[in-house]
Amino acid sequence: MSQEGYDKLVAELRQLENVELPRVREAIAEARDKGDLSENFEYHAAKREQGRLLSRISFKQKVLANARVIDMSRLNSDSVQLLSKVEMVNVANGKKMTNTIVSPHEANIREGKISIKSPIAQALLGKNVGDEVEVHVPAGVMKLRIESIEL
Fold it and tell me: What is d(CA 88, CA 97) in angstroms, rounded to the nearest whole number?
């Protein structure tokens, strides 16, 4: 994963551990002070929220424990690979698009970051500028031509 993605994940984890979790624990304590727990909706809602947060924290910790940050200086832009920014043209309609291939945990289509596990990224991996690839997408087959590759 990229250094940027790693740092973002660390920041999310710190936010969950240092802000969200104490807030939920405080809500549980307040609800507990109100009396009978068997019919206390606020208590049960806070406990569910705590379980959800602990699950997210555990997941993010596992991702970080297994993450490897890629040294960008060791990559080349000759062919498409992880962290490559690829400009391509849809051969059928001439529409240009630019996507960066990232780890699944960093994928965000609004930012133009697609997962390396996506059909488009899988078809592009290892290809060079000028190559045409056929991508099997849910809508059928899309033919793309690679215009440029950057890091």
Answer: 6
**CA 93, chain centre distance (Å):** 29
Alpha carbon distance 74, 142 (integer Å): 32
Question: Angle CA(119)–CA(121)–CA(127) in degrees, nearest 5?
Answer: 120
Kindly give the residue spans of alpha helices, DSSP state H, lying in 16-143: 21-33, 41-66, 119-124
Q: Hey, what are 101's tokens?
A: 């291939």
Match 């309609």 to its residue by tokens: 93
CA 63/CA 132 separation, integer angstroms: 34
d(CA 2, CA 106): 8
**Distance (Å, whole) CA 87 – CA 145:** 9
CB 82 within 8 A of CB 99: no
Q: What is the pTM of this model?
A: 0.71
Nearest-angstrom CA–CA distance, 100 and 5? 13
* Digit-coded pLDDT (tens) for 33-62: 877 777 778 888 889 999 999 999 999 999
CB 113 within 8 A of CB 43: no
